[in-house]
Amino acid sequence: MGGIRVTRHFGRRARATGAIVAAAAAFSMTLTGCSSGEPARTGVGAGSDPKSPAAVAPSPSPTRTYALSKAPQTIPAVRTHEAARGPGWRPGSGGGVVVAKGSEALADEGQLLAQELKLGYRGAVPARAGDVQLALAPSSKGGPESYTVLTRGGRVTVSGPDQAGVFYGTRTLKQALRSGGAMPEGVVRDAPDRPQRGLMVDIARKHFTAGWIEDRLREMADLKMNQLGLHFSDDQGFRIASDTHPEIVSSRHLTKDEVRRILALAARLHITVIPEIDSPGHLGAVLAAHPQLRLRDAAGASVRGAIDIGQPASAELVDELLREYAELFPGAHWHLGGDEYQALTRKNPEASFPQLAALARQKYGPNARVQDLATAWVNDRAAVLRPLGRKLKAWNDGFFRNGVVTADKDIEVEYWTGKEIGARPPLEYLREGRRLVNVNDEYLYYVLGEPNDFAYPTGRRIYEEWTPLVLRGTQAVPKQYSDQILGGRFAIWCDLAQSQTQEQIARGIRMPLRATAQKLWDPRKPTRSWQSFEQLAGQLR
């Protein structure tokens, strides 16, 4: 990647007296290879005859030097590498993985790396030649996901201010060995450009096995992605077992023990799992067991997937589910949904749903509308989760303009589209000071069956065209708003669930996911061509 800095390190030269220097000039040899790099030894050997010609002008030992190292080949690419001369590091029979004294918290990372590299793990003991040492360095510069890899003297030290950064350093080491056979000599200093980098899977419309989800976690971890979204409730299914409302759960679902296993693996891989119970729309599976809570229009017709937000029992049901799953999912983030509430897709919501319009005016004043009632619903659900320490998210078409009620400012906007009724351009949210996550459906939506003009995304388009600033369509927002864009997520939606198998989906997202990881870690124009990127991805399997 761009920004690679080069520092030259020259080999040491042996000093000798005049006669020896003259002989060395006549007979010196320079070899390039993988050896110790020690200086040539000259002078009188122990027990030799100082009067013999050999003692005065011996034939010098060859001095081996190395070309300057090149940056390790990884996905995502490291942001900086300081080159050096030396053999680099590769696993050997005498090497192992250790953690520095005071860094015992890195035992999980050390044991995983040792297993992957087929080395022994020796724990918190001094490093020796051939070892990889992991170390916490709280005083080092950079955020918690930054890291340094120092390769010198036949050993590697991976350090960072937090466990997550050290873990990402081990991913770099692992990939360097796969792509080049060795970790190059020198220093890697690396950190992500965006704090949120992830994958979202719609497990509501299509059942995915726990094993498939765990495989995606391992894939994400090697790509230094840190968030997995699970959209597990929708019109077609509710896919995680419930103790409070077992009547809503689909026949094919994940057990809570399976979810706990997924969460345990995610935690070891420094990935936060973000649950989503989408409301007040997309609740069809829940409402199938609670038909009395379905929203009905003025003609008495029920509205697909929409809960009647005017009934107190609706809030009670959803809040019971939120509290139940907040105990299961310990992560810091929670997705509230908030999108595509069908009452608001009508030409005149107030005429179509007079009961909601009347309640909105009663609660929020004479100028209030149905959209204000929907906004208040999302805010109220946020109020349930906020005391539990959750950071909250909602889809962008759940944020409305010109309302009496406005969405709480701490709710992050997951921007996915400008195509929905009432959808606003990204700049409106940014000018309000809101923070956004990029889920641009032009590039990052993998929709099974390609309905509604969707096309399966290609890694090449993401790699060559997209950046976190490209929030809607193909146009980037001004760079002045960059700090408000927290990152992005690649999304799998299962609208036509039978269009692909789990295995086909895994193959289909492989290169788009790698391109997304690259551009979230470093949004600059890649120096590696797409063809070269594809080739590298093949080497890193």
From TrEMBL:
Query: What biological process terms from GO does the record include?
Result: carbohydrate metabolic process
Q: Name one GO molecular function term.
A: beta-N-acetylhexosaminidase activity
Q: Where is the Glycoside hydrolase family 20 catalytic domain?
A: 197-502
**Active site (catalytic residues):** E340 (proton donor)
Q: Where is this region: Disordered?
A: 40-68
Signal peptide range: none
Domain of life, source organism = Bacteria
Key words of the record: Glycosidase, Hydrolase
Sequence similarity: Belongs to the glycosyl hydrolase 20 family.
What protein name is recorded for this chain?
Beta-N-acetylglucosaminidase
